[in-house]
Amino acid sequence: MTKKQSVLTPLVISALLLSFYYLLMPWHEMLLLDYRAVAQGAWWQPLSSQFMHHDQPHLWYNIAGLWMGWMLFPDQFRQNKDWWPVLPIVLAVSAGQYYLATPNVIYAGFSGTLYGLFAWAALKDSLLLPQSPKHWISVIVLTGILLKTILDFVLPGFAEGIAIYAHLSGVICGMLLVFLGCAHGKFNV
């Protein structure tokens, strides 16, 4: 008998995303990642910007993406402790967006972290479950994320308004975490 997949962590993350957007709206501008404000001491913005969104569709797409990842990768997100990559990916996404994007861009959103979580789960599934009947889903998702990330750089008009450096940083961090885990014997390939 297999253990049921925990719903607690995606519920908590969804609650955080909803709370930040709807309850902290009066401070919306202070919580977005504004490069000039961070340089002047707004140290919380790289983290708070991950949970803020520019508008409601942006918020709801990210919540849908979170739950889609939870459904697509039950082997990778089975228990609450399996969500440990969120923190390093959040930090990598904020750092990538802060250091690589142009300073006039105001950043908000969870999509870079989602890209990283999808890349982490899909690569881990691809490497660890090659005999699984669901293996092809992971390969397709990983290929799609990589192609989308590359297209965002190759066709800049296609990616207008998209935080391409946040997405790129998330993907790189997610994949790096899998390779580091394999190198240190955390995952058996």
Layout: helices, strands, pairs:
Elements lengths: L7 H16 L4 H4 L3 H5 L5 H4 L7 H17 L13 H15 L10 H18 L6 H20 L9 H20 L6
Helix pairs in contact: 1-5, 5-7, 6-7, 6-9, 7-8, 7-9, 8-9
Subcellular location: Membrane
Keywords: Hydrolase, Membrane, Protease, Transmembrane, Transmembrane helix
Family: Belongs to the peptidase S54 family.
List keywords for this structure.
189 residues, mainly alpha, Rhomboid-like fold, 63% helix, globular, Rhombosortase, Rhom-like_SP_proteobac, protease, transmembrane
Give structural notes.
The protein has helices at 8-23, 28-31, 35-39, 45-48, 56-72, 86-100, 111-128, 135-154, 164-183. The protein has 189 residues and is an all-alpha fold. It has one domain (8-183): Rhomboid-like (Rhomboid-like fold, Up-down Bundle), CATH 1.20.1540. The longest helix is centred in the last third of the chain and has 20 residues, at 135-154. The relative contact order is 0.13. The model has no long low-confidence stretch (mean pLDDT 89).
Condensed summary:
With 189 residues, this protein is an all-alpha fold. Helices cover 63% and strands 0% of the residues. It is built from 9 helices and no strands.
